Fold each of these.
Amino acid sequence: MTCHFLVLCELVILVCLISQGLQNKLIYSTQNTIKEINLRSGNVSVLLSNLRSNIYSLDYDYKTEYIYFPRHNLNVISRFRYPAGKPYIVENVITAAEPIALVIDPLDEYVFWTELYTGKICKCNFNGLNKACILQDDKLYAITLDYRSRWLYYTTFGTTRKIRRARLNGSDKQTVINSVEVTGLGIDTNGWRLYWMVHNIGELRSSTLNGTNIIKVLNTNKTQTSIGIYVHNSNIYCTNGLQLLKVTAMPVKAAYVLHTDTATTHGVLLYDDIRCIFLTLLKQIVVPIMSYVHECFPFDFFIIHIGKDNQSCLTFTHLLKQEEYNCCSNLYLTPDLEIQDKLAQMITDSKYYIIWISSENDYSNSWLDWCIDIVRHTSASRHGYFLPYIFRLNNSKVPADLKQYEAYELSSDFPWKMQEILDYLKRGPTKGEKTKS
Ligand SMILES: *[C@@H]1O[C@H](CO)[C@@H](O)[C@H](O)[C@H]1NC(C)=O
Ligand SMILES: *[C@@H]1O[C@H](CO)[C@@H](O)[C@H](O)[C@H]1NC(C)=O
Ligand SMILES: *[C@@H]1O[C@H](CO)[C@@H](O)[C@H](O)[C@H]1NC(C)=O
Ligand SMILES: *[C@@H]1O[C@H](CO)[C@@H](O)[C@H](O)[C@H]1NC(C)=O
Ligand SMILES: *[C@@H]1O[C@H](CO)[C@@H](O)[C@H](O)[C@H]1NC(C)=O
Ligand SMILES: *[C@@H]1O[C@H](CO)[C@@H](O)[C@H](O)[C@H]1NC(C)=O
């Protein structure tokens, strides 16, 4: 990846932010308080105060739109709806023994947390039901989830100081990194690398997901002050005493101070409302289908391909990927009913999808019916309107049920018109916009 791409990404993001009024927010905690920074304006505001506890960790579920956080000193996992009208209202989800960190599994809809002193990792579903403790180890601190390969990564913080991983049912415990004091863990879903903050020396490090190829990413030059990190694509957000840092790891290693607070920062979370989405990489089909599908979520670009000629759609996907967009497509999925249901749900919950109609006027496959169902379902179940992007190639017919939506014409030389396509994606139909119907 070159600088050129980086600049392009930043530009695309900027254009999105400006043209669509979208906002990226950094949510962070200080003692008893949760605040947000609008990364566009730099405005800082208090979301919740008087929480009567230290909060060392935050995570977000894009589907139900809740921020979850452990209230260590109150022995409870809490949440609040976000974004939402003020005042924000805290709900307690479940009791827990001095919980220190948590992570959301949006696929199976569980929240997993670590308990510092009991050394347990427990879980419950989003409403606090079905609580179960899946494993016990030394004292524990950080936790994160590799949702693709379904591993929980966690750190021990007692007589042993390690990064370990286990399956989501607690089986198959393995040590990934030895002899390291870690308070913050995260996974870069572009490069599929693990990042961690070494608390005692303030160093951000990274390795592959199995612990090989360890590199030092950044020295914060502060000891004992860095707690939480949050990895979003290849950007790492770190709390660092009073400061909040953004570290870009790929392609350039650089660190910026985003904000200096008056109180010590602990947990951090990036809330991403960018509609031009840089999704996790479209991988070769070696991963189980459901985790593969999961990569579409919550980042929303899903390409529904209709027609026999899959080559042009594959090219399109490939080009989007080169442009730092990422996407999933039904091309890689068998039209199995169960998967379709899950996909339908995800697309309904997503912000964006693309319908790609190939050059052949032959789309009598089961995906078409399915796709039309989705469009109907989505428009009916949403407040406002939710539209697909429709691309058609070589004058292919638009199925009758989709005719009410604007379709974008592409000639067969579309690969050379990427800019045009990107421009269209920027000004194309968006959620909340009313359209001809
Ligand atoms: C946020 O910043 C804008 C300027 O970018 C300012 O006009 C606005 O009043 C600020 N809002 C708050 C709540 O501070
Ligand atoms: C735990 O999960 C792993 C991986 O998903 C699976 O192979 C194993 O059979 C499960 N063990 C139990 C006891 O359910
Ligand atoms: C660890 O992961 C790297 C890259 O993901 C891979 O090349 C290597 O073979 C793996 N090593 C082991 C021991 O699994
Ligand atoms: C840490 O110190 C080194 C050497 O003085 C400096 O180059 C680097 O920028 C510092 N890091 C931060 C995050 O301030
Ligand atoms: C694309 O179509 C070809 C020919 O019909 C087929 O062999 C191939 O498996 C398809 N690829 C994907 C990813 O669906
Ligand atoms: C589009 O039509 C042209 C000319 O009819 C043809 O050469 C080309 O292969 C078609 N493109 C695709 C992707 O089918």
Amino acid sequence: MHEVLIVGAGIAGCCAALSLARSGCCVTVVERQPRWAFQSSGIFVYGNGLAQFRELGVMEELTAAGFVVPEGRNSYLQADGSPITTTRYPSPAPGIPAILGIKRAEMHRVLSARLERLGVPVRLGTTVQALDQPEPGRVQVRLSDDSTRSFDLVIGADGIRSGVRALLWPQVQPAYSGFGVWRSVHRRPPGLVDKIMLMAPGKRLGIMPISADRLYLFGTLPESRHARFDPADWPRTMHERFAGFGGPARPFLEQLTGADDAEVLYTAVEEIVMPLPWHQGRVVLIGDAAHASTPFMGQGGAMAVQDAVVLGRLLAGGPVDTALRTFGELRAPVCRFVQDVSRRVGESGAQAEAHEANLRSLVEGGQRAVDGFYAELARLDPAAAAERPTPP
Ligand SMILES: Cc1cc2nc3c(=O)[nH]c(=O)nc-3n(C[C@H](O)[C@H](O)[C@H](O)COP(=O)(O)OP(=O)(O)OC[C@H]3O[C@@H](n4cnc5c(N)ncnc54)[C@H](O)[C@@H]3O)c2cc1C
């Protein structure tokens, strides 16, 4: 039985704890935040990520807490609400939805409850201050409460600003993508059940159901590296940025400046592009710490849970050092593919002058592009290869 420390209780850390605990490891999780509190708003999880959540035994609870989009439908509209086309995301296997929307806080409620049931200790308000590997096969860790403990393996699952990465790979830094994302949460009218993308020159605004009575709005556009917005002004600024959008988005944009608390959130999007190896001795990085992506393919969460499942399988099946090397070799091409496609999608959407050409290629080849993306993900990912996407 390996003694494993997981740093960070986000999607990657919680899922790694579930995956490794099942593989018989003795897992401890430390999380910097003093209580379970995650930036609100929604997240969507596509079928390839849901397949991994099913493997961890939590997919049903997640789908019950979120909203499954019927037939994986994604409706593209002009900024005024007139229709362009509809595509469908593939389901990877019978019984696995093509796309789930869920509040982030709900996802973490499900994951943390499962950790508690498994008896995995999570030490909140705790982080790592120093890592030392004085002998092969052991990592000495000094925690923020000044205690020192030794582990067979340390997993840095502490996100884009990873403290573990900063200790061992200080040269790897987040790179600003040139994009800002604005998000807000609203009451969902019962009839609004599709994922909707409204397309304007240089800007996109999405609507995604995330529960029986909530949806979230997400708007992407280029923002200057130096842009700073006072959080008190976020609702007004989001309203102003997307004022040109109408159709189904109009009532939600209007609510931004009203009394409703729309949980508005601004994020300046950064990426981590890190060469292999993703481990040094017995310390390995997973999730955003190793490969944070721009959000245009909505795949960061799916990549984090796939990392967790693949690492758990490899650790259960052979020596730790081989498992860590193989982990990076298997996962890096998949994560790099997602990063590259996502960046390209963001960049082409940001070019106002390419708007008409983008709409034409969406109508002519939108479904082909979706199917091609998921087919390539399945081809690259040996873990998912057993469950090839079925056509919608
Ligand atoms: C605007 C935006 C929209 C997105 N939308 C989607 C989407 O719809 N679908 C999708 O799949 N992905 C989406 N993503 C990506 C997704 O959010 C991330 O890929 C995913 O959350 C990564 O999980 P993680 O656990 O690796 O990192 P995180 O979620 O960042 O979790 C890291 C955890 O570690 C903790 N931590 C940090 N530092 C320390 C430390 N030093 N010590 C201890 N703990 C620490 C943090 O508090 C946190 O709990 C989006 C990203 C952005 C920016």
